[in-house]
DNA sequence: GTTTAACCGAGACGGTACGTCCAGTCTTATT
DNA sequence: AATAAGACTGGACGTACCGTCTCGGTTAAAC
């Protein structure tokens, strides 16, 4: 998760690595306290004990800063082998839901996605920093299920299935948590996973 | 859509109904041209040929105004009887996807949902004006499928199933369209519907 | 002190005389509480228990309203015969100073004069309602002094002398009270009167 | 004239001295064109080619800005030795009258004095920036007249005489020019000076 | 005793300016 | 060349009044 792709010179005083970390941490703290729309660059700079100039030297805009600040949280997502596809899916859904419960994620994720609908570079940054980070879990889960024999091998699977599954899982959880604003509790996870697995099984039976 | 629930007096000059319509129309136009984050109250007022105070007399904030301006678009969603549950689901998915392709919806929907994570009244307004408007389609579709015998009657269905199905459908379509930023084309609709129906059938087989 | 020169019809419901009095009283109260620059038409209307429309039907602007509200205070100025020119002048200076100490006069008088430098109708209104009201005291005082034999008869006096005396008296008192912001106490009145009388005597000696 | 007594830091970008001058110049231009009551901060900022925030960083209010903009004009007042007390007084009266004829002074002076009746800091600013600047001319004139032997030495003069003379001169001229709205022409100056000198002589004769 | 025309209150209307806030840039001196 | 500090331009914010207008209703003189 590079902090900034802005080109750099070799000579002169090097940038403070400490500042980077402090800024991202301050950004998350500000998101928790103020939410996305009331977060200001000046406030973040103040919290980080850094001048505004230092922020702008690293990030071109508030949106990119927030994406980077939040992206690191998605690194926590893991897929330990829980022994069955059902357990793996339930695990990832629970993890993702827990991430969305965090106030910094909740307030920031939808906001930057909204901004990205009119900002191609931002969309790309989100794709790389956040979306792909999640999608790898789906790939890993499928591969593991195939190894276990719970799913047919790739040869018999239509292309784009991973993408479909990803949109269904991430979409359903986000919608439940943020739009419907209902808790993603154990019962919901169980039923959603059952629905998804049933669909996958049916799809596997008749491609 | 009611413009504002603010209590009104009986005396004095009545509010101009024309202004209400002009403002909402101007808001949609501004969303298309500028997107959510660059839309300003002053600009909307200018487009509507109305003073800024007239906007603030009716809507407390940009967010509430945008919700009302966009909400009316969700009234277009319908569920004509297409003869089978498959066809009904595909129809509603296509309609919803088409709505999300509209620039005013695309830029506004995620933004107001993001804001609503820190604004309870806004969340309620969204729930009433937008979410419930969509959810009724799920209820109607299920009732129709039960009448056709495609789904078991309510007695055998767990509570919350409608909500689950709604989150899956709406979530998947939104995620595909706005997060993954991929087209919701016929092929995707077909495969998503198949997945969902397979899951529903499996769930019905073993409650 | 006509309330308003705005042309009127003969028929229809006549204007409420009570409203006029209430508005002027409310204006003075608002001047005392808020001062000239924070006085608003809406506030005056509210205090008077009257609609804003009613104000504007009678006075074209805040300035004219304030002039009328304050002008009536200048009617209190009187020139009882105190037996000598010295006593008469000291009396009028003290009266005028007392008037300028009143908060409504203090805050309003300079303000409307300032406005009148760019508003000919307002200047005329001030001249008629306020300036001429004061000037008559000078005329009366001079006539009385001539009757007493303290001053030579008009035949020996240069034209414009009354105006000069008036500007000196009113100007000095206003400047002392509002610009220098020092009290117009008995000592100052005595010395100022002595100065003025000395000047008048010298002028009379050698026209 | 000092632009602002607000304490300043040592670090950071220093304030632009050019901006200060441009703002004061723009303020005077706006006073001439628009008068005091129609002068707006935004307009001044625009004329000065400066952002509104830059104005507010230096002056807390329109009133203080106008005082500073006008104060510099009072520096022009001088008292060259014209050889006699009469000539000196006539000279200063003419100068002061000429200053009051300038449109920026005419419209601004009474207005800020009016405001100062309810604003102690503003009154102090006016006293320092404007009143004291004028008063020194009276002191200088008296000293010179005493040196010439036209007036008795200080030992025989009551305290506060300078203040009295100042209020009489400034008050009479202001009243003539702004309230009576009559020209301060050579004839008026001659007669006013004669009146004042006569008074002074009489006062000197019998303290 | 009805017209009837002007009044009245209330409050919405189009405007203008306010004073504040923030984005993003620039200018210092310092490290 | 990066840094902290803070001034800079520009522009939107939400509020306050201005003076006008539209309501439903009232009032007293003229018919």
UniProtKB/TrEMBL annotation, chains A, B, C, D:
This is TetR/AcrR family transcriptional regulator. The keyword NADP does not apply. Keywords: DNA-binding, Transcription, Transcription regulation. Pfam families: TetR_C_11 (PF16859), TetR_N (PF00440). It comes from the Bacteria. Gene3D superfamilies: Homeodomain-like, Tetracycline Repressor, domain 2. Residues 17-77 form the HTH tetR-type domain. Signal peptide: none annotated. The keyword Transcription regulation applies. Residues 40-59 bind DNA.
